[in-house]
Amino acid sequence: MTQQRSQHWYGGDDRNAFIHRAWMRRGLPDEAFDGRPHIAIANTASDLSPCNSHLDELATSVKQGVWEAGGIPLNLPVVSLGENQMRPTAMLWRNMAAMAAEELLRANPIDAVVLLGGCDKTIPALLMAAASVDLPAVVVPGGPMLTGAFRGAPLGCGTDVWRLSEEVRAGTLARADFLAAESAMIRSRGHCNTMGTASTMACLAEVLGTTLPGIAGIPAPDSRLLAMAQEGGRLVVDMVSADRRPSTVLTRGSFLNAIVALAAIGGSTNAVVHLLAIAGRVGVDLSLDDFDRAGRDVPLLVDLHPAGRFLMEDFHRAGGMLAVLAQVEDLLDPTALTVTGRTLVEHVNGAPTWDATVIRPRDEPLKRDSGIAVLRGNLAPDGALVKPAAASAHLLQHRGRAVVFDSVEDLRARLDDPSLDVDEDCVLVLRGCGPRGYPGMPEVANLPLPARLLAKGVRDMVRVSDGRMSGTAYGTVVLHAAPEAAVGGPLALVRNGDPIVLDVPARRIDVDVPTADWAKRQPSAAMRSSLAAPARGWERLYVDSVMQADRGADLDFLVGSSGDGVVRESH
Ligand code: FES
After folding, report:
1. What is the DSSP letter of 497?
2. Which domains does the chain have, with CATH numbers?
3. Cβ-proximal residues to 29 (8 Å cutoff; 6+ apart), any chain
4. What is the pLDDT of residues 459-516, one digit of tens each?
5. How far, CA to CA in Å, does 215 sit from each of 79, 143, 165, 207?
6. Least confident segment among 154-168, 215-229, 350-364, 503-517
7. Which of 46, 55, 80, 83 to mutate for ligand 1's pocket (most ligand atoms within 8 Å of CB)?
8. d(CA 138, CA 469)
9. Is 495 within 8 Å of 402 (Cβ atoms)?
10. What is the dihedral angle through the alpha carbons of 454, 456, 459, 464, rounded to the nearest 10 degrees?
11. Cα–Cα distance measured from residue 313 to residue 193, given in angstroms and rounded to the nearest whole number
C-alpha cells in the first residue's frame, strides 16, 4: 500500500517530523499520526456570506463521519464570497478563492478534502481548487433556504426581488409594500431557494459526480442534510484508500451529463463559465459549442423560479436531481463515475418523481428545447449566450435599433431620462461589463427597462451585454458576449440607432451595418476612458490575466493542474 500523503509530514523521527507532529498534538492522540488519513474540511462559513453562515454545523457532522471511518478531520476555513454583499461583484474573487483554496490544500498535510459551499461562487471555486490539486474530494452543499411567504404567496429570493422592484418602477406596487416583503423573503438558513446559480451549481456538482447522490436540494435546515454530511465524512476516508480523485470523476462524459442536467432544470447561465473553468482545471476539453450541442434537445422539466412557479423545497419534495435525471437517463454518459465509485446512472436507476407538477415527465415538459443557446455573429465572434426558457418567445427573432450604454453608471443616469429615444422594439446594449471591463463580469446584463415603457405594460425587451446576469433573473437577454468591449470586441463599436438582429433559432447575433462603415468605427471616448488598469492588488493581477467568458473567465496561469506534490520542507 502506498504511503499516505500526510505521512510525508508526520512519518519518521527527524526534526521536521517532530515539529509537524508536536504542534498538531493539541488533543490528537499518538495514533493520529500512525498513517490514518487526514481530512481537511474546506469550510466557507462566514457571517458575511449569509447563505453559508450555517456551515460550521455541517462541518461538525462531517467531522463525526470522518472519525467514525478512522480518519482525522481538520477544519480549514477558506475564502468565502457572499454574493449579495461584495462589491463590485463576487465574481471578481472567484478565481482568488479558488487559488487560495488550491494553495492551502497543497501546502498542508492532508490526504483528502470535504468541500463545504453554498452561495453562488463558493462551490465553483472549491471545485476549481480541488481539480487543480487533485486530492480525493467530496462536495457537501449547504442546501437552499425554506420557502418564505408574503401575504399568502410564496416568495422566491432573487427572482421576486427583480419582479417586485420592476413593479415599483412601473407604479403598480407601493414602495411601502415592496419594503414590507423584505423581512419575509429569507425564511431560514441556506442559499437562495430559486433555481439560481447556487442551486444550479449544487445540482450540477451532484451530476458531475462530486457529491453523494441525492444530496442537492435538501433544504439547509433539514436534518437529513446533517445525516448526509456525516455520510460524506465517512465516504471521503474510503476515497483515500480507493485513490478516487477529481480526475477520476471529472471526465468529459460527466461534463456533458452536467450540460444535459443544466437544460433539464432550466439552470443558471452562470453555470457555463463555472463548468468551463472547472473543466479547464482538470484538462477536459469543453467548449461553448458543447453546451449548445448537448443541451439543445433537452426539455425543461423543472417548474422552478425563474422559469416556472415552484422553489427548491418543492424540488426536493418532488424527488430532487435523481428524479430529474431519471427522465433523461438515455441522454447521460453511462460510464461517468461518482465519488462513491459507482456510475451516476447506477444511482439514478429509475428514481421516482413524487410530484409531477414540480418535476415534469419527459413527454409533458414545461418547455421543449430548453438548453442554453450559444449565439455567434459579428457582435460576438467568440460567442454569447441566451436562455430561451427565461426569454419571451416573441423576441427570439427580433430586429431593433440599438440604444447603447457605456457602463452601468451611464445606464442609471439616462435610463429614465424622458429625452432618451427608446421604445419597446429597441435593443438595449450595455457594455463595459465583461471580465476586464468592470472588472469581474458582474450580474448586470438583465438591465432594467425604462420606467415609461414599464408603465405602458412592457415587461421584456431584447438586451445585449458582455456581462452576466443573476441565475434568478429572466428576460430576453443576450449575455457573456465575447470578446468583451474592453478588449476591443465589436460591442465597443456599436452606436445608437444601429440595427441589431437577434435570431435564436439560427444561433445568430449581428449588427446590420455596412462592412465599409463598420471598418472605420473606433470605440467611443467613454469606452476608452474606462480602461485604466488598476494600480495594485488582486484587481491588478486579475485584469492582467483573466480570460474571456468563452474560456470560463479563469486566470490564464491557473488553467490546468499542479497536483498535490510539495517538494521542499519549511524548516
Ligand atoms: Fe447566496 Fe443567492 S445570495 S445564493
Report:
1. T
2. 36-147+187-348 (3.40.50.2300), 149-185 (no CATH), 373-532 (3.50.30.80)
3. none
4. 999 999 999 998 878 899 999 999 999 999 999 999 999 999 999 999 999 999 999 9
5. 23, 8, 33, 11
6. 154-168
7. 83
8. 28
9. yes
10. -70
11. 7
Q: Which is it for the CA torsion 334, 313, 274, 373, positive or negative?
A: positive
Please, are residues 553 and 90 in contact by the beta-carbon 8 Å criterion? no
Q: How far is the CA of 377 from the centre of ligand 1 (A)?
A: 33
Name the pTM for this structure.
Answer: 0.97
**Backbone φ and ψ of 224, nearest 5°:** -65, -25
pLDDT exceeds 90 at position 46 = yes
> What is the rounded average pLDDT for all residues in the chain?
95
Element (H, E) at 38: strand 38-43
- Least Cα distance to 366 among 377, 376, 358, 374 occurs for 358
Nearest in space to 410 (alpha carbons), one of 500, 490, 496: 496
Higher pLDDT, 472 or 397: 397
Atom 2 of ligand 1, residue of closest alpha carbon: 192
At residue 221, the pLDDT reads: 98
Distance of CA 61 from the midpoint of ligand 1 (Å): 23
Residue type, 543: V
Mutational test site, ligand 1, from 48, 119, 122, 472, max ligand atoms within 8 Å of CB: 119
Q: Which atom of ligand 1 is nearest to the CA of 472?
A: 2
Sort strands 462-465 and 477-478 into parallel, antiparallel or unpaired: parallel
User: Ligand 1 atom closest to Cα of 120?
Assistant: 4
Q: How far is the CA of 80 from the centre of ligand 1 (A)?
A: 12
Decide if pLDDT at 1 tops 70.
no
Lowest mean pLDDT among 195-204, 257-266, 280-289, 387-396: 387-396
Which amino acid is it at 242?
A: A
Amino acid at 320: G
19 contacts 50 by C-beta, under 8 angstroms: no
